[in-house]
Amino acid sequence: MTDSWWKKSVVYQIYPRSFADADGDGMGDLRGVIDHLDHLAELGVDVLWLSPVYPSPQDDNGYDISDYQDIEPLFGTLEIFDELLAGAHARNMKIIMDLVVNHSSDEHRWFQESRSSTDNPKRDWYWWRPARPGMEPGAPGAEPTNWGSVFGGPSWEYDEKTGEYYLHLFSKKQPDLNWENPEVRQAVYAMMRWWLDRGVDGFRMDVINMISKDVSLPDGRLTAGSVYADGSASFIGGPRLHEFLQEMHREVFEGRDGLLTVGEMPGVTVNEAVLHTDPQRHEVDMVFQFDHVWVDRGPDPWLLVPLQLTALKAILGRWQAGLADVGWNSLYWNNHDQPRVVSRYGDDSPAHRSASAKMLGTVLHLHRGTPYVYQGEELGMTNYPFGGIDEFRDIEALGQYRQAVELEGRTPEEVLTVLRARGRDNARTPMQWDDSPHGGFTTGTPWLPVNPNHAEINAKAQRADPDSVFHYYRRLIELRRTEPAVADGDFTMLLPHDERVYAFTRRLGSTELLVIGNFSGVEAHAAIDGWDGAELLLTNLEPPAGGLCLAPWQAVVYRRSV
Ligand code: GLC
């Protein structure tokens, strides 16, 4: 078994496009990351995850890669990348890369070759299929399956040159690689070894539970009101997924130490995650599951469902219990695909923003697992006040809007209401460094506007204020280092039926921690006995006067010996 140093670590995600722009072109870059390494070191994080920085047409902001072994010129060069890696390592921070190998860009030379003729040696590196039997190739409805793509429209694109379709679960500029072909797998493994040899410390694996597909590619079930079917039963956790991950481990990671692997797995179940993260099985160290960020999503995608705290607790409690003995959890509220958590599960009004951001951080970080902080989360950055659809840049928002409004008869306002609350661009507005015109992100024109609240919410002001979200996160991260029960303690959920209070204990040997968060804007009493006289380790507001009576959005952490 390899060492599991990452159980004691905190990971920080950088979305380079929106982090810091050093050359004034309005787009973040690697030099900008280098310039802010001290901010990250001061926060105390151990690992940086870089969203894709490879050459890319940027159709999906870099998740469409046209060359896996170079750096996107907008972001810098390999030399600057090496400098960044050295700068991070010098500050005791590791760097993991985003590995996007379910699909490549259609501008990758592999795909260019593949599409050039039906007998090209790389033809089979992607999923090519003829039109549906008896139908005219290219005609509406002639796609090989009825699946919709994640970004709207069908998941097949007709290619006139060879008269066949290729599969793209995401945009048509993201053709799916065919992992059934051993040459594809070997090419990916070689590329991964090349990065590890260069000194990177692991990978975050993009939609890695979609790489194995049911090769018969059956139609999916159509639901009322949608024009395309959900094909996910044929590609989520497919038949050869475990085999591929184990092969990858053998070919890439065996014999190397100190690395971190995390697989992004939408739709993964607890039971599957146990198998994926069991160290004896040699697949990945941890997975990103989605249940807790889908809790406010109903059967109708264009209806907002408010958070029900008991449902959130049931989900996270189930994941904690499921991976208690074997495997390991990742912990996250935010990433580049999710709206800002303080706007989503907290309260981003001036009165409660700071308290609720700290409360959410406390509850998340003190679960058992490895916490992930997404850039700006450590400042309590909020959703952006989006107006019309023309203000969105995200291919998902634009594609889903088009499908819903033009094909499925939804009104623009009902779709916009959901995009404003949940759209991915909320996470992608530039990092707020200071109160200058573009928040210190760029001296040029930012590719996506900076949130107007950067005048109040910014890193410079928070670093100077000991009561800020930033310094609270710093203390929270430090607690993982000073209190062993945070990383290693057992987890027990309390008060599962309480709609306001989130409460749990962590226990390691004779040390027990009690963590309580008030998920509401009113005072709440936590009905938990036996903690009188316990040591108060951390709170985001004035310590409770007596009993466990919490102010709106208050978090408290107690410690006692048992
Ligand atoms: C993952 C990424 C997301 C991207 C998609 C396709 O879910 O996190 O940003 O659009 O995969 O690569």
TrEMBL record:
Keyword Hydrolase annotated:
yes
Q: Tell me which UniProt keywords the record has, alphabetically.
A: Hydrolase
| Record-linked Pfam families | Alpha-amylase
Where's the Glycosyl hydrolase family 13 catalytic domain?
13-428
- Magnesium in keyword set: no
Q: Where is the signal peptide?
A: none
Q: Which CDD domains match?
A: AmyAc_SI_OligoGlu_DGase
**Top-rank lineage group of the source organism:** Bacteria
In terms of NCBIfam families, this protein maps to: PRK10933.1
Indicate what this protein is called per its UniProt record. Glucohydrolase
